[in-house]
Prior knowledge:
The protein is of the alpha+beta class. The chain is built from seven helices and ten strands. It has helices spanning 7-14, 30-40, 54-62, 75-92, 124-135, 143-150, 159-175, and strands spanning 19-21, 45-49, 67-70, 98-101, 104-107, 112-115, 118-121, 141-142, 182-185, 189-192. The strands form three sheets. A four-stranded antiparallel sheet has the order 4-5-6-7, with helices on both faces. It has a three-stranded parallel sheet with strand order 1-2-3, sandwiched between helices. A hairpin with a 2-residue loop joins strand 6 (112-115) and strand 7 (118-121). Helix 5 (124-135) packs across helix 7 (159-175).
Amino acid sequence: MTDFKDVMxxxxxxxxxxxxxxxxxxxxxxxxxxxxxxxxxxxxxxxxSSANDNMNIVMAMNMGxxxxxxxxxxxxxxxxxxxxxxxxxxxxxxxxxxxxxNGAILNLADATVLYQDQKxxxxxxxxxxxxxxxxxxxKIVSRESIMTRLWDSNEFIDDNTLTVNVARLRxxxxxxxxxxxxxxxxxxxxxxxx
Length: 194
């Protein structure tokens, strides 16, 4: 990794199965990035660092790290520890699914949005609306197709119900600096721009 300003963007883009972190990094330290990753994923994190005093080791574990390997290290030891962490992690669980959009991260596992260190809890309908729009970024999604996915039943659903849900979602998104991101296309539907 070379761009240490956009660690979370790269994390979401590549969806790694394992993260190796040093404590000393440009812009933000490894503790910061470990905490940010833990907000959206349970991917195993191994710290590799020469900053190996007890305080740093304890902090690495408390921030969400799974292992700490001191530099200089023997490659065979690192390989064995990586294999052990991967075996323990992926025998029982996988990583959380996320969608990234313009710096915002939608966590599909817990229906939250993370943007500029702010976490937003979404209702079931708000979450589904945002997920549908993000799956179709840059395209208009018709009101009918959103309503079909939200309320998959033969019962009549008032058209106003979708309008109310979108309004609530917009209001919540404004609170964390994402106002104006859901665009209404009169008589057609909604969209988010790429």
